[in-house]
Structure formats: structure tokens, C-alpha cells
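Section 5.1 Outputs to date
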Amino acid sequence: MTLEELTNLSGLAVERERLLDLADRVQNRPIRATSLFGMPMDDSLEDAVRVGMETEYRRRAAVAEECLRELGVSFPGDPIPGVSRSRTGFRGLNDVRAVERGHPFAIASTWNPREGTFRVAVPSEPASARRWRREGWVEVQENLLSQGLTDGPLGAPVLDCVGGAETVIGAVRGVELWNQGIELLVRLNPNPGTDGIRAALDDNRVPLVAVSYEVLQESVTERPGKPELVDVLLWKVVEIRLFRTAAPVKVEPTFEVDISVAGDTAVSTNFERMRAASQAADDGYREEG
């Protein structure tokens, strides 16, 4: 920045503050004049003059603010470089061959037919996503930070997706946060309309899950020669979609362990190990107490 630009910046900052102060004074102080432009001043005119002067002062302050932005100054509420807000994302596919690290999945061993509940894991692992840039759509690596889950996912609808049809068959009724991701407790509706998904869960034929979510805040890191890394700092669950398969399949979507949904093979995940350790600690505490 040149000395001339610095001088201009300083003058604009002082002028902006002066204009905002005048706007506040107009708003809070009474008009003492009994006439204006030779016309008597009554209460209705006083309000009109007050609003007009305050608006003009704030308009002039906004012009000064825009000039300051052109010189590189940012103000509270301005977009932060590398951070964007409010967009809808979708993670998870209905194709077993396309499953990758970071995709959500149903934890088969948590299916409770009597209660009609099971858990869906959403790993805090980068996964392929798309973002709109000046040159068009580009592939990025997107990471949903578990600590950034906000607004509460409770009540988010759960959809059964079969043959192109989508039916609401339950809702999210609980959530647990871990450093490596989150677990969403799904409860099915107690009606005959869920018989199909219940039978599929009994047979371990619901390995594929997709989560729709709203991105409230994200940070972008450019990586030369690699796709951008997008850390989703704040997000909320919009809905969950369940995809059935014709037969049990084996899926390995995340972490260093296998996620098996074939036959009666037990599923072991980092989520379950952490939950087991937490439960053991709670049981020990209760026994000691």
C-alpha cells in the first residue's frame, strides 16, 4: 500500500465514523427548530426529516465503507476469504462400487427389530464432492467435521429409496459425536409401511446410506496439484436416505477396519469400539458408586 493510499484509507475511516455518529445523533436527539424552509415544523414533519437525514448519513457512510473495502479493509459480517456459507450437500451413493472413505453407512450390528432402531455412522473423513468455481464445477475433497454438527439433527426424516420411489419411513431420534465422526440413531415408524425396510435390515441388505445436509460455514484450502480440501465447519442434517440391495454385500467404506454386512458377520468399527469403551467406563462408575 502506497502512502497516498494509506492517507486516503485513514481519511475514509474517519469520515465513515463521523457519518455513523451523525446518523445516531439524528436518531436520538430532538429537533429544536420551529420551521424548516419557511414551513412550520410539526410532529409528522419532524419524523420525516429525522428518517431522511439518518438515511442519507448512513448512505454516505456505506459509500465510504465500500471505498475502504476496495482498499482491502473488511468489516464484521463480511465474507471471510476461503470461507463460504449456506449450500446443500449430499454424501453417499446407491452404488456399492462407488463407496469411499467418508461415506455414511448403516451399522448392521445395531439393528434392533423389537425397537425398530439402528445407527447410521457419518465419518469425519474427506470424501469426493463438487463445488462451483469461476471455471465451472470442480471436484474437491470435503470433510464434515463432527464438532461442526449444529441445529440438532433430531427429527430429520429418513427415506426408503426403492425403484426410484422415496418414502418417509422414520426419523432421527438421537445423535452421538466422536472425534472420528457422528452416529445418528434412526427409529422406524411403527406401521406396515416399514415392513420392506425391516426385512432388508433383517437380511443385512441396507449397506448404503446417503445423508443430505446444509453447509452453514466451510473453509477452503488450496492444494497445488490436488483437489481443494473443504472443511465443513458448521452443518446440519436435512435428511437420510436408505438404499437396499438385492442380496447381502460387503462394503468397506471407512477407517482401517472392514465394515461387513454379509451374512451374520459381526461388524466392528471405530465407532463401536469407542461406544463400548464409554459404556464400560459408565458401568464401572455405577458399580463403584
